[in-house]
Specification:
The complex is a heterodimer of chains A (about 500) and B (about 400). Among the domains of chain A are: about 110-225, Uridine Diphospho-n-acetylenolpyruvylglucosamine Reductase, domain 3 (2-Layer Sandwich); about 230-335, Alpha-Beta Plaits (2-Layer Sandwich), CATH 3.30.70; about 345-430, Alpha-Beta Plaits (2-Layer Sandwich), CATH 3.30.70.2740. Helices cover about 35% and strands about 20% of the residues of chain A. Chain A contains 16 helices and 18 strands. Chain A has helices spanning about 10-25, 35-40, 60-75, 125-135, 155-160, 165-170, 205, 240-255, 265-275, 295-310, 325-335, 335-340, 360-375, 400-420, 440, 445-455; strands spanning about 30, 55, 80, 100, 110-115, 120, 140, 175-180, 190, 215-225, 225, 230-240, 260-265, 285-295, 315-320, 345-350, 375-380, 390-395. In chain A, the strands form four sheets. Chain A has a seven-stranded antiparallel beta sheet with strand order 15-12-14-13-17-18-16, with helices on both faces. In chain A, strands 5-6-10-8-9 form a five-stranded antiparallel beta sheet. A four-stranded mixed beta sheet of chain A has the order 1-2-4-3. Chain B has three domains: about 1-175, 2-Layer Sandwich (Uridine Diphospho-n-acetylenolpyruvylglucosamine Reductase, domain 3); about 180-285, Alpha-Beta Plaits; about 290-370, Alpha-Beta Plaits (2-Layer Sandwich). Chain B is built from twelve helices and 17 strands. Chain B has helices spanning about 10-25, 75-85, 105-110, 115-120, 155-160, 190-200, 215-225, 245-260, 275-285, 305-315, 340-355, 385-395; strands at about 30, 50, 60, 70, 90, 125-135, 140, 165-175, 175, 180-190, 210-215, 235-245, 265-270, 295-300, 315-320, 325-330, 360-365. In chain B, a hairpin with a 4-residue loop joins strand 6 (about 125-135) and strand 7. In chain B, helix 6 packs antiparallel against helix 10. The two termini of chain B are about 35 Å apart. In chain B, about 55% of the residues are buried. The chains are: A alpha+beta (about 500), B alpha+beta (about 400). Chains A and B meet through strand 9, helix 7, helix 8, helix 10 and helix 16 of A and strand 7, helix 5, strand 9, helix 8 and helix 12 of B.
Chain lengths: ~500, ~400
């Protein structure tokens, strides 16, 4: 037992009572309270800060989640929901200990209605399982974070996840019609519905991306998207990063909105080539992965236009994926890029800044300079079409001095994103990682309004304490000093 | 009313005015733009001050290559679209009375039209917002980049909040390219069930329509008249809108004609160019036909819409269905113009919508009817929570009190 329920007498007794009550709800086998078992839950994909929950429970129904929340309130302990734990910003860190509500056993697809283009799913459903389930129907669930093979729809809901195809299709919130939520006071509420334009405020829109601070979703109603009629996937090869960014600007400027527009620089390409032997040119400064979709009658014309725009911007060559297999391999390379980093360095740390698309050359130049100034190697693979950068800082975590330089460089890059009119997070969330940037992005007035909103739904601060807002209320808001940036799982 | 109007020249001036009002006097404030939606609301505006955003109409920043624009909320929709058209871009939301309506007003009422099927609604385009709350605090949320998850998404909360949570002063929008051209396929079809068969076929069409509209003959007649077009209106109409390059548009018209020419089809016309522009406009304006005594909007599952339209037609209502989205705009015609008859019609249709979790709200009616009619539909489960939020953000009830959820019954 840790913080909230230390093993001194009356507290310890209460802890045992809490455990007994939780077990009576979900059964003995669905409660973890041994230190060794809890260790798995001490962090998510953000590993800089660690904290074990006091207990992890695995509910299988809304009623169980509700009962757990009610018990937490009765015992005055914090609680935090968790999906697959792929968050890269510490969204699942159990600050102050308490009860972690792991939703991974609530993973059913409850309803698929193609005529009315929606599906109702439980929060623990793995993102890609929904798309697999829909295969052949002509419909899919559009948000496709790179971790979609592991991450859950509930986690996507909490963090408003993106992915490569958000450029054309939007992020999670654009595909959520409604949800069932257990509020921090233990009541259950239905937001939105299977119909559009439910009268009232768009609470669904507010809850998506609230990082678990307003409640715990127990069902998500998602909009299904028609599959593209046809698509083409291309690879533009450029001598320099700045040629590649110019091509991005030309494509968007020509009124073409690709489905995805991803950039990989030389550093990442060489790691990918070692890992997957795709046939990437190792001497190219950067490659663009461009996918666009539309009517069969239009895609070839579009391909020609894009090829011409790339060539005008100095592309050495533009290749097209000619078979589904080639396309699949290209996307595999992109989505598993982070897995290949191990070939470059023992540890790495990635950032999630966003800049206006036209500022990409500036931020990339800054990142190069920043790396040189701090004596660090930085490689880039990111959602270029959205201006969402993911610089990957390579280092050795055994070298404390190097680690400090990585932290400094990361902060400088994010500060530069703000200076260029952007944001510090495009899709990973604030979590605990970027909480210190909130007052750089937002004024005290902005934060006060956000705090009012949180206080309205979560007045005790027991639900996901210490996340997103710097002035978090509640329990044991202790932050470990930043000592080492995380070694990141997937992205 | 004009003596009580306040028209700030800057956002700061508005912020100061609202702060002073919160301290002293506490008059109720009714934010207005082009005054095209003053009739909206579950009750008539309370006596107080009209805060006009008319002078907050500046274009703040338009980095066209980023496909975003930041403007003050009082900008007229036509001025906004004209500025975007110069760069061959647009905000792809159909907003009626665009020469009067303002961005802030359209956003606060979450106005949309036929092309919401292909392009979505305000919640999909507002990426940053500034607003003044009831205490006079000027605050912002979101930002100016197309992808951003920092902080609560208050943009979503303010879209459709009808000026009851804060007064929106500035907006950053995500934009889309202007299509080269557009057209519609206008089909008259024997019956609503025969249209439903086509709607099901459209689910897996090879085409990708921007709009799927169904009109009963009464609505079709109004729309054709307003668009000054010669199109058949003597049976229910399925009107499918497509956009893109000339080649894409031609291909889609051809494909849709083939896919949908099954039994029950009476006439099939292709509407192009200027005529198509006028049809888009008439489809957009239908929701504001000001001559009729009452306009409602029902939201239901798309699969329920044809049955709803069939019954509404029998009850003498002109209906336009955004069939891909499950939204029905209905105009009660002159014949139904007594309160009792109107109430009976609305109650029956609301009952139909409720079967699968939908609802029906009155958008526009004679102000004297408001207290007699079930304006806001049946209570939704989250209204209690919404009232708490309204109370939290506007504790003294100064912003448009009673005109939205705080004026509706709870469960």
């Amino acid at each position: 037992m840790t913080t909230a329920l230390a093993e001194s007498s009356p507290v310890h007794v209460r802890a045992q009572q809490l455990l007994a009550r939780l077990r009576s709800i979900v059964g003995d086998e669905s409660v973890l309270a041994e230190q060794a078992e809890l260790l798995v839950y001490e962090c998510d994909g953000y590993t800089v800060e660690k904290k074990c929950p006091d207990v992890v429970v695995f509910p299988t129904s809304t009623e169980q989640v509700q009962a757990i929340v009610q018990i937490c309130n009765e015992f005055d302990v914090p609680f935090v929901p968790r999906g697959a734990g792929t968050s890269l910003a510490g969204g699942c860190l159990p600050i102050g200990g308490g009860v972690m509500i792991a939703l991974t056993r609530m993973k059913r697809i409850l309803e698929v209605n193609l005529r009315d283009r929606y599906a109702i799913v439980e929060p623990g459903l793995v993102n890609v399982h929904l798309t697999q389930h829909l295969k052949g129907s002509g419909y899919h669930y559009a948000p496709d974070p790179s971790s979609q093979g592991a991450c859950t729809i509930g986690g996507n809901f909490a963090t408003n996840s993106g992915g490569p195809h958000t450029l054309k299709y939007g992020v999670t919130v654009n595909h959520v019609l409604g949800a069932e939520v257990v509020l921090p006071d233990g009541s259950v509420i239905q937001l939105g519905g299977t119909v559009e334009d439910v009268p009232g405020f768009d609470l669904t829109g507010l809850f998506v991306g609230s990082e678990g601070t307003l409640g715990i979703c127990t069902k998500v109603i998602v909009r299904l998207t028609r599959d593209p009629a046809a698509f083409r996937t291309m690879l533009g090869v450029f001598e320099t990063v700045s040629d590649a960014t110019r091509a991005i600007s030309e494509i968007i400027g020509a009124g073409i909105v690709p489905a995805a527009l991803e950039m990989m620089d030389q550093g990442i390409v060489s790691a990918l080539e070692q890992a997957f032997q795709f046939g990437f040119p190792l001497d190219a400064g950067a490659v663009l992965l461009i996918e666009f979709d539309g009517l069969e009658v239009a895609v070839d014309e579009e391909a020609q236009r894009i090829t011409a725009l790339c060539s005008q911007s100095g592309a050495r060559e533009v290749r097209q994926a000619n078979t589904p297999k080639e396309r699949q391999l290209l996307w595999k390379c992109r989505k598993q890029a982070f897995g290949a980093i191990g070939r470059l360095s023992p540890s790495y740390c990635t950032q999630d800044g966003v800049v206006p698309r036209t500022k990409l050359p500036e931020i990339l130049e800054f990142i190069t300079d920043c790396g040189q100034r701090h004596g660090l190697r930085i490689v880039n693979v990111f959602h270029a079409g959205d201006g969402n950068i993911h610089p990957i800082l390579l280092f050795d975590e055994r070298d404390a001095e190097q680690v400090q330089r990585v932290l400094l460089a990361s902060d400088e890059i994010l500060a530069k994103c703000i200076e260029l009119g952007g944001s510090v997070t495009g899709e990973h969330g604030i979590g605990v990682e970027k909480i210190s940037f909130m007052d750089k992005l937002f004024s005290p007035e902005d934060l006060a309004v956000m705090k009012s909103i949180r206080d309205c739904f979560n007045p005790t601060g027991h639900c996901s304490p210490g996340k997103m807002l710097p002035t978090s209320a509640g329990c044991g808001n202790e932050h470990l000093p930043k000592t080492k940036p995380g070694r990141r799982a997937a992205l | 009313m004009s003596a009580l109007d306040f028209t700030p020249a800057t956002q700061l001036e508005l912020s100061r005015f609202v702060a002073e009002n919160a301290q002293d006097g506490r008059r109720t404030l009714c934010p207005v733009g082009g005054r095209t939606a003053l009739q909206y609301g579950y009750s008539a505006p309370a006596p107080g001050t009209y805060v006009s955003l008319g002078q907050l109409n500046k274009l703040v920043d338009y980095p066209a290559r980023d496909m975003t624009i930041t403007v003050e909320a009082g900008i007229r929709i036509d001025a906004l679209q004209q500025a975007l058209a110069v760069e061959r871009q647009r905000l792809p939301i159909d907003i009626p009375q665009r020469e009067r309506a303002t961005l802030g007003g359209a956003l606060a009422t979450n106005t949309s039209g036929p092309r919401r099927f292909g392009h979505g609604t305000f919640r999909d385009y507002v990426i940053g917002i500034s607003a003044v709350d009831a205490e006079g605090r000027l605050f912002k949320a979101g930002g100016r980049v197309v992808k951003n998850v920092a902080g609560y998404d208050i943009c979503k909360l303010l879209v459709g909040s009808r000026g009851t949570l804060a007064i929106v002063t500035q907006v950053t929008l995500k934009l889309r390219p202007l299509p080269e051209t557009s057209a519609q396929l206008w089909m008259t079809i024997d019956s609503f069930p025969a249209i439903e068969q086509r709607l099901e076929r459209l689910l897996t069409s090879q085409a990708r329509p921007a709009a799927i509209e169904v009109l009963n003959p009464a609505a079709a007649a109004l729309i054709v008249r307003s668009a000054r077009c010669e199109l058949p209106v003597d049976a229910p109409v399925l009107c499918i809108g497509v956009e893109g390059s000339a080649r894409e548009v031609d291909w889609q018209l051809e494909t849709l004609t083939q896919e949908l020419s099954t039994t029950g089809l009476q006439e099939c016309r292709r509407v192009r160019e200027h005529e198509a522009d006028r049809i888009w406009e008439a489809l957009t304006e239908f929701q504001t036909c000001a001559d009729d005594p009452l306009t409602f909007e029902a939201n239901l599952r798309p699969s329920q819409c044809m049955e709803f339209a069939r019954r509404a037609t029998q009850l003498g209502v002109a209906v336009q269905v955004h069939a891909g989205n499950g939204l029905v705009v209905g105009q009660l015609l002159e014949e139904a113009a007594t309160i009792d008859k109107t109430t009976a019609v609305l109650n029956e249709l609301r009952g139909l919508a409720r079967v699968h979790g939908g609802n029906l709200v009155v958008l526009h009616c004679d102000a004297q009817w408001k207290s007699h009619l079930p304006m806001c539909g049946d209570p939704e489960p989250s209204w209690g929570l919404m009232k708490q939020l309204k109370q939290k953000l506007d504790p003294h009830g100064l912003l448009n009190p009673g005109r939205f959820v705080d004026g509706a019954m709870s469960l």
